[in-house]
Amino acid sequence: MITQLRAELEQNSDEEAKASSNRFFKEPIKCYGMKTPVARKIAKAYYKQVSNQSKQEIFALCEELLSSDYMEEAFIAFEWSYNLRKQYEPEDFVMFERWVGEYVNNWAKCDTLCNHSIGTFIDMYPQFIDPLKKWTASENRWYRRAAAVTLILAARRGEFLDDIFEIADMLLIDEDDLVQKGYGWVLKEASKQHQQEVFDYVVAKKDVMPRTALRYAIEKMPKELRAKAMEK
Q1: How is domain 107-231 classified at the architecture level of CATH?
Q2: Do 1-87 and 107-231 have matching folds?
Q3: Nearest 5°: phi and psi at 85?
Q4: What does each of the 232 residues of the chain score in pLDDT, given as a tens digit?
Q5: Are 172 and 205 in contact (CB under 8 A)?
Q6: CATH architecture classification, 1-87
Q7: What are the extents of the domains in the chain?
Q8: How far is it, in rounded angstroms, from Cα 161 to Cα 169?
Q9: DSSP 20-79
Q10: How distant, in Å, are the alpha carbons of 132, 150, 188, 220 from that of 163?
Q11: Distance from first CA to last CA of the chain, Å, rounded?
Q12: Global pTM?
């Protein structure tokens, strides 16, 4: 089945889409080259073939896809793992944590896995917010970005605000721009429900907060607040 799926990805590859995909990344990426709706359609069609298998069997198939390092196969694996969200159990955290370490090597893989599968897992089992915070101390930039972007959808709903500030504190002076953009993004999402609190946080930290993170955090605020936050 995986062989069939890969053959179909190959048939749908497009050189123009491949060139376009590469422009979004500083690091080289492995991809067939196709638009997201095409990959989503293939993911959906093949999931029907495996949906009657056990969670562990489907996770094993996800792992096989992830091991190829192709962007589209990772996208399909993360779609399938998200489809299993109603079956998540606390012990699945170990696997998700390993996936970040072993298979995430660019921001798109990081965000797709974390926004959906891991983010939903944390919603279901909030006691895992503490192990998530430990990722901020990792030497691996993708664990550090993941610590922030896992909470994007929760931030948008106005949840986990104190934890978001704590994670931002832990990542505050990180020198990696993709980590800065990650925690800036989660602050921006939190500001939609907690504008004043996020504004106060940013102003309190602005002397040490990298400008990249600061600009992301205030992006959705009114012009006068943005101007105030950007004052030297």
Answers
A1: Alpha Horseshoe (1.25)
A2: yes
A3: -55, -35
A4: 999 999 999 999 988 888 888 888 888 899 999 988 999 999 999 999 999 999 999 999 999 999 999 999 999 999 999 999 999 999 999 999 999 999 999 999 999 999 999 999 999 999 999 999 999 999 999 999 999 999 999 999 999 999 999 999 999 999 999 999 999 999 999 999 999 999 999 999 999 999 999 999 999 999 999 999 998 7
A5: yes
A6: Alpha Horseshoe (1.25)
A7: 1-87, 107-231
A8: 12
A9: HHHTT-SS--B-----HHHHHHHHHHHHHHHTTS-HHHHHHHHHHHHTT-BHHHHHHHHH
A10: 10, 12, 14, 21
A11: 58
A12: 0.95
Tokens of 164: 């978001």
Task: Say how far apart CA 55 and CA 57 lie, in whole Å.
Answer: 5
As beta bridge partners, residue 30 has 70
What is the C-alpha separation between 145 and 135, in angstroms, rounded? 9
